[in-house]
Every structure is written in C-alpha cells, then in structure tokens.
Amino acid sequence: MKIKKLAVLVAGSFYGITAFAMTAPQMQQTNTISTEHHHNHHHHHHHHHHGVENETPVENAPTAESHYAEQPVMIQMSAFSMANVQASAVCNVNALATTNSTTLINEIKSQGVQCVNELFSASSNIQAAAFDSNNMYAVANHVKTLSQNYQGGGDANIEAMFLFLRAGYFAEFYNDQITFAAWVTPAIKGAIDAFVNNSHFYDDNDAHGQTLSEVIITMDSSEQQDVYLPIITQWLNRWNESYATKWNMRNAVNNVFTLLFRGQWNNEFKAKIGTQTDLVAALRKFSTSNYMIDSSAEFMLANAARELGRLKKYSDTAIQSSVDAGLKDIFSRYEMVGFGDVAWLGAADTASYYGNCNDYGICNYGEQLENQVLSQTYICSSTIKIRSQNMTTAQHQAACSKMGYEEGYFHTKLDTNNIPVADDNNAQLQVNIFDSSTDYGKYGGPIFGINTNNGGMYLEGDPSKPGNVPNFIAYEASYANPDHYVWNLEHEYVHYLDGRFDLYGDFNAPTEAIVWWSEGVAEYIANEDNNQAAIDTIKDGSTYTLGTIFNTTYDGFDQDRIYRWGYLAVRFMFERHLDEVKLMLNSTRTGDWAAYKARLNNWAVDYDAEFTQWTQQLANGGGTVNEAPVVAINGPYTANKAELINFSSQGSFDKESSIASYTWNFGDGTSSSEANPAHSYAQAGEYTVTLTATDTEGASRTESTTATILGDTTPTNQLKNGESKAISGAQDSVLKFTFVVPAGASNLNFALNGGTGDADLYVKFGAEPTMSDYDCRPYIGGNDEICEISNVQAGTYHVMVYGYNSFNTSIMASFNAGSGFNVPDACATSGPVTAGRLYDGQVRCLAEQDTIWLSLENVSGQNSIAITTANGSGDLSLEYSNQGWPTSTNVDASSTNSGNGECIYINNQSQYWGYLKVSGNARGASIVVDYNTPGCR
Fold it and tell me: How many helices (H) and strands (E) does the chain have?
C-alpha cells in the first residue's frame, strides 16, 4: 500500500517492534496469534510508535481494544486473505449507553467481551453515556465482588468488566465529553486489588491468562503503574518454562512491560523507579533466561531487555549501577546476530538511546548489523539493486527476472513511455531481503528504524532530492513465489513503479481517496487475470458498488474491499474503459486531484451497473485460461571441448502456478531433466540447445539457443586460477578477460598488482562490465586494485581493465576450490553459531569449538532431511538422532569424512525434533539443512 514519500508500504501483519536507537526507542514486541502464514495487510505511517503495536496510535495513550482469538493454530492462508478465528457476536452498543448501572452490568454480562470491545470505536455520544463516572464506579464495585469470589480457570464476566473499565480510560483520553470524578480510580484500584489478592492470581493455565490480561492492562490504563511495581517484580520472578508454553499467559504477563514503558509519563512512577533494585534484578534474570530463546516466548525476552535498557532514562538514581551490570551481562552473554540476538538488540535499542553506547561497546551497532546481515549484493539492472541476507544465485536471478518482467508489463499496460512524474528522482530501487519473517522482525528495526509488525515495507524517501534511494524491505517465506521465495515482491515492486510513474507528490498530496487505485493496480499488475481470491469474494456475496470502492481508505475497511475489490475495479476499467483510465492518469500524474475526483464521480454513475454485470460474468466464468510458462534459457553458451557448461533456467516462471518439469536437449543426442544441468561436449562446433518447461497444468513452452564449442586451445583472454598475467595498454585502452568459477568455490578475488601507470579494474558476473554497469569497481589510484567477491557464484566472471593512463601491470584471479559439497561460505558473510536451531535452507557459519549442539524442527513432517557441511579447515564429524541428543548409544546417522565435507541424508523420522552433534573444532566451516531434496548439496 502506498503510504507516503518518506514512507511505508506495509504488506502484512506480523511479530514485533524494534527500532534503531538513533530514533526514539520502541516499546515491546507482542504475542503472535499465528505463524508466519498469517499475513493480512495493515496500514501504518512511517513514524516511531512508542506504544504496543496495533493498539495505541499515541505513545502515552491507554491500550486500545483487545484482539480476541481462540487458542492459536497454524493458519494456512493465501495472499492477502483473512481468517475469522472467532465468530462475531450480535452486539447492541446502544444498550451499553445507559444511566442505569444495574442494566449496564447485565448488558456487559449478556453481550460479553466481543461487544464491549466495540465501545473503543463507538461514537463519542455513546461513549459519553456508557462511561459516566457513576457507571464506572458501579462496574468497579461489581467486578470487585466477582474477583473476591474468583475460582480460577478464567471468568468471562470478570474479563468483560475489566475490559469495560479500561475502555472507559481509553475513551476519556480521546473524548472531550468524558472526565472522571476523583473517586473513580480508587474504586477501580479496589477491583484490581481484589483480583490480585485472590489465591488464584498466579495460576498457570490459559483460561486464567485471558482474564488476567485484562486486569493487568487495567492497572496501566488507570495510570497506576507506580502502585503495581511490586506485582511487576513478582511476575518477572515467578515466570518459568511452564508459563512460557501458554499463549494467553504470555499475552497477559507481557503486559507488565507496558506498565514499565508507560510509567515514564507517571510522576509517581518516576519518583519510585530509581530505588527499585529488586525490579532491576528481576528484569536481568528474566532477560537472561535462555529457555525462551527460539521459543514462542522469545519476544518477551526482548521486551525485558528493552525495558532494562530504558531504565537508563532515570539517570543519577540508585539503580543505575545494577542496570549497567545487567546490560553488560546481556551484551556479553548474547550475540548481536545469533544466539540471543533478540535480547541483545532489545537492550541495545534503549541503552544506546538513554545511556552512553561507549559504556557497553555498542556504538554504531546499527551499521554493523546492516553490514553483517544484509551482506549479499546483487545488481539486477541499472534500476534495481538487491541486498540480501541468505539468497542463492538462482533466487537472485529469479527475483531480478520477475521484477524485470513486472517492470516491462507495467510500462506497457499503463503506457508510461518510461517517463516519471515531475520531481521524482528515484532512479534505482534498493530491495532489501531478510532470510525470514523472524529475521525481519529482529533486524529490520535496528537497520531501517521501522516497525516490523507487518509483512514488509516500502520506504520511498524524498524523491524530489537527487540521489534519493527508495528501499523495499522484504523477507523470504515458504508461502511466497517458489521461484524466489520473496514475500510480496511483485505487489510491492508495482507500488514503487506506480509511485514513480503514475502518482504525483507524496502520500499527503492526493486530496481525494486513491487507495482503490494504488492497491488495485498493484494487485492487477502482479496477478494479471489470475486472481481467484478476488473472484471468490464476488461469489460469497460481499459485493460493493463501483462508487463505494472509489471511496475506500485504509482506515476501517476490510482486506477484501481494499485489495480484492480494488483489483476488480482496476481490472474492469482496463478491460472495458481503457481510454478513461488513460485520461485519469493524466490527472494523477500532474496532481490534478479535482479533475481526478470529478472523473471518478462520473464513472460511479455511468459504469456502476456495467461493473456489477461484469463481476457476475467473471464469477460465473470461474477464472482464466492457463498460460504456458515463461522460459528463460539464458544463452548463448560458449566453452571449450570437454569443458563443463552450467546451463541455467533461472528466470523461468509460471504466472498461474509453478513449473513442474524441465527438459533440456543439448543438440548432441543427450538430454537432461534437471532445471540447471551441467554438460560438456566431446566435439567442437555449434549446437542448438532447447529447453522445454511444463507447468502443473500440463502447458509447455520451448525456447532455443546455441552452444559454441571451441577447440582445445584456451583463449588468450581466459584467466587461470591463481596465475598472474602480465598486461599493458595505452591511455583509454580496454582489455577484457573471462574467469570461470566452479560450484563450491570461495574466497574469490580479482587483483591488479604493481607496475607503472594507472589501470582501472571492473568485474561483473555473467556479462561484460561497462564503465557504468559493474559488480565491483575499486576506485583506487595506481595499479594496486582488488575486488573481493563475497557472494561467489558458479559461472563466468567478466573482467575489464581500462587505461586511465597508460599502464604496465599484472592481473590475477583466484579462488579456493570447494570441498566437493556445494555449500556457500557463510563464515564470509555472518557470525558463527555456537548452538541453536537450524532452519531449512539457511546456511550457518559454525563456531570454532569442540562440540556444537543444534536442533532441527518438524523433521517428522518432511520426506527427507539432508545435512551438509563444507568449507574451511579442520576435520568435522556429525552425529544425528531423532530420539534426543546423540550419545554413544543414541545415534541414528553419522558422517566422519576426512576434512569438513560431511553429509547425512535421512528420512522417515517419527519425532518432531531432530538433534545434531557437530564435533571437531574446525575453522571456517558452514552447515546447512535441506528438507525434501534428492540428497546433500
């Protein structure tokens, strides 16, 4: 969704909040209802939000309405879909707006939490009537009695009553018609105390947790953070592994961090906090509880560390030495990237903002984190650059190919002539891709200063400034396009194009509603005519008129109306009234919003009946004809006789589904069904090579290219590994070389060395570099120039040496050959792991220690598990068990090859967890686990 220039495009709803401490630090992360498959869209402006995400728009406001859900489960959803986890109740908020307190209490009980929740967004008049001081007093006294008699196991009436009370404080904060009498808060304190003093207050079950959550939030909403400091300390000290396994208990106790956060606006709290050494000790204990690492409670670990660091705000108080000791414990115990990083980063966020970063050795940690995490760079074109955490060459190429396709399709469909709107200088998009939604949640905030409780963001910057670089921030996900696995890549890239070529000004420039277009065209270009989810919304009866769709905003409207009906409206106008669309774009490209609105008003009248008829025809037709895959054969190819050629299908994709099979015919009587085979030719000559791709529906397409096979002589311009070559040239002369790098190679370098004059070095993978298009250009005077390639790719590198002045020097290219296993060198791009969990496809650098214990999740749900190690020096060995940690009598599989090249390939696992022991104290070794592959790498 296009939010604003200097702004945010949010693609989905997720996990937590983190922020780089050069901006005001954030409060806590929140409990997640589902796994990363839950990816609804939400609208956020690019500001630093200090409260609980998705709850308060003002940092010192009381917490907003609750999001009630059943016990969380894995929710499988398609793009932009929603799931109602609990049926909505039939509510009558007018009945809650009564002066009769007995009637009110009965209505709260009969309507329940779902309906009381609606008071947060009720009209100001309804709120003023419902939250009369007498009503608040009566409800507080009633729930006090209920709390005294509470038997544990949760209580829907107590829950609803406390929700009503805190909704009252929320309404008082925003509604000028409401001011509570002085005797309201003492009555509410009496109700809270009755629940706190009940023997079941510290019970350990999810039903209790749901009720407990409302009580703890009411402590905060009633501005009694100072009163309940002992309760906060008690919960932090009592917290244990049993509590941590329960969703509602996590959700409830996580609210104590809200009390600590919002206490900074409470004068009584500020007067007390400086002596709370017991609280500091409890926060330190909590934030160093390792059992929460890599668990569903990990977000609480981060919150505790963040609030410990926030105590630096209260300078010159008695607690400061204890706070410093706790922070130093976190920074020494955990890693910035790796084991315990959520706690490290949470503490760094607040400690560096409120304290002195030099005291903890964490200055400039945001820059260090960025360089370490987003260490891969891949240049798609002059308009797209990718920075990634852990993508393969194939993924980079597929992502580039897909964006290239989208770019061409966009310009053709919208007839832009590739001319940006006035005052837009965004010449190149930087795409930043984290390895997972979890890594995005952990690292996105410190690096980019954003909230990460979403599915990605587009930060456009200020396009009127020359040199401005817009950033799309994304992550890989198993449910994304399987060609590249980057979530929302297509949709968000269209936002960039739309903002640059269709919409004048920033997010605040349009004076009329534009959401239907910005989201609709992103969906339409990304999905084209293949959007069954949109067609399904027609069938379920939730239809909208064209005029209603045009008035859509991000505030208060559901996902179907914003995305699916936006898609349908845009598609309808393109199919039926393209000339009108072009006239509308003339207005949006110049910022003539009055003309834009007038045209939409006419459309709403002239085309509404036609639109309704069109949607019904579309629903009855049930979709579109399956198209054959787009095939990228990536030729022509050139090699010597008997030399392996790495043929590539990268960039091939299927718009409707996925590619099921590939068939290569090499023109010499041989063929292959691999997607990216290696093949050599016995005889010199020119061969016709064909590639046929077939999708899951059976549609096929074939493309052809040539393979030119040379004789036995090596071309004079082909560099050999580790061999120095003398070169010379005049001013402005150009020498060109190639260098073939095999799979598994590492430490790839290109260097000019010594001699006289001044030569400039340019390097590019897969194509010849130019003076404006290259992967590496050192920019150093003289001849001592070096290009160190961190993301080594198998294939041909092209080298150009340009004579800035006349020169006489030498050139050498070199790499370290792989171990026979095709595992990227993770130690070149990330820090080592000493323990923890391995994830499918994630390559990790192994620490130099005798024994490393690693776990693998959900191995029983996989057809096969492949564990591969490679690179570095030393002699690793692997032992694996599905029945607990490996011992001398508990080993299901092992690998003890000489060196670091090890492989374990297993299947038919019966238990959820797999357990791996790595031994050998190797240096620079990498490890990867792959699920459902034919074998090790």
Answer: 27, 27
Q: Name the band, by pLDDT with cuts 50, 70 and 90, for residue 276.
A: very high
14-34 pLDDT, tens digit per residue, is 222 222 223 344 445 565 433
Determine the CATH number of domain 826-931: 2.60.120.380
Helix-strand-coil split of the chain, %, nearest 5: 35, 20, 45
Structure tokens given for 928: 């990867």
Q: How far is CA 369 from CA 108, 294, 590, in A?
A: 50, 20, 40
pLDDT in tens, 392-404: 988 998 898 888 8
Token pair for 343: 């706690």
CATH of domain 725-816: 2.60.120.380
Mark whether 59 is an active-site residue. no
Given a contact cutoff of 8 angstroms between Cβ atoms, the answer to whether 252 and 210 are in contact is yes
Which superfamily, per CATH, for 637-710? Immunoglobulins (2.60.40.10)
d(CA 857, CA 916): 11
Instruction: Give 54's pLDDT tier (boundaries 50, 70, 90).
Output: very low
pLDDT tens for 676-718 read 888 888 888 778 888 888 887 777 777 888 887 876 444 458 7
Q: Which two tokens stand for residue 743?
A: 């799979």
Domain spans, the chain: 89-223, 377-449+462-621, 637-710, 725-816, 826-931
Average pLDDT over residues 818-847: 77
Confidence of residue 507 (pLDDT cuts 50, 70, 90): low
Give the list of residues 6+ apart from residue 504 with CB closer than 8 angstroms, or none: 421, 422, 423, 588, 589, 590, 591
The residue from 107, 490, 492, 785 that is catalytic is 492
Euclidean distance between CA atoms 298 and 316, whole angstroms: 31
User: Among 33-37, 101-105, 524-528, 764-768, which is the least confidently predicted range?
Assistant: 33-37
Contact (CB, 8 A) for 330 and 290: no
- The whole-number average pLDDT for the span 850-862 is 84
- Cβ count within 10 A of residue 195: 25
CA 274 to centroid of chain Cα atoms: 37
DSSP 273-313: HTT-HHHHHHHHHHHT-GGGTTSTTHHHHHHHHHHHHHGGG
Fold match between 725-816 and 826-931? yes
Instruction: Enter the CATH code of domain 377-449+462-621.
Output: 1.10.390.20
